[in-house]
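Data deposition worksheet. Section B asks for the primary sequence of the deposited chain exactly as it was used as input, without tags or linkers unless they were present during the calculation. Section C holds the resulting structure in token form. Section D is free text for depositor observations; keep each observation to a single sentence. Incomplete worksheets are returned to the depositor.
Section A, Depositor: J.P.
Section B:
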Amino acid sequence: MAASSKIRVGFIGLNAPYTGAPTGTSWAAQAHLPYLRTSSKYEIVALQNSSAERAAKAIEAYGFDPEKVKAYGTPEDLANDPNVDLVVSSIRVDRHANSLIPSIKANKDVFVEWPIEASYEKAKELTDLIRAHNVRNVVGLQGGYAAVATRVKSMIDNGEIGKMESSTFIGKARGGGIVSQHVDYFVDRMVGGNLFTIGFGHAMEFITKGGSLQFRILEPAVTTRPSPIKHVETDEPIIHQSSAP
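Section C:
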């Protein structure tokens, strides 16, 4: 790291509205950008999108100084930037590994959203590579650090509510029988990011860390919605190649 006291961030997935139509969930802009651009600890020094041109448009759209924030079109170009300390990947789940592997090999620290990847095999490949290169890494599971979670943990650990014998969690995922075209990849199981993998993982992290709990699933059961999910714009069923009969 350079003499600067700030950690220099290369940001993958901060898109601009290129065509006027929505693209993805804009999670990078909504969840990460507000903190990173005002933080006393981090400084965004590079953006990487599907092309250098799109990265440059994002730099302009979000008001960055193009002299200070570089635009890259491939993970390899970002990994080769010596002025980047930490690479943040906030893109589709099935693209996490390929977006970060070059930076891990370049011994840069990495942040990846949850889920880590679309399959156990790809997630293991990524974590094995991280261990081999001994880079610092963070997976975006943060519910256990919320104020309510830390307070509940303190109450349990200090015996304020007596001995806890059991607990029950009830959750409801957002969604239903329709989905917008720009995020219909959420219903493609091969992508790996959906209401179950994302929501369930966050819920279990919140419970185990915030509640100081260990759990065992004795009778797991998953049901499939029998009726087709449709595009909200066209009312047509969504059929992905990986989910077609």
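Section D:
The chain has seven helices and eight strands.
The beta strands are 7-12, 42-48, 70-72, 86-89, 109-113, 137-140, 178-179, 230-231.
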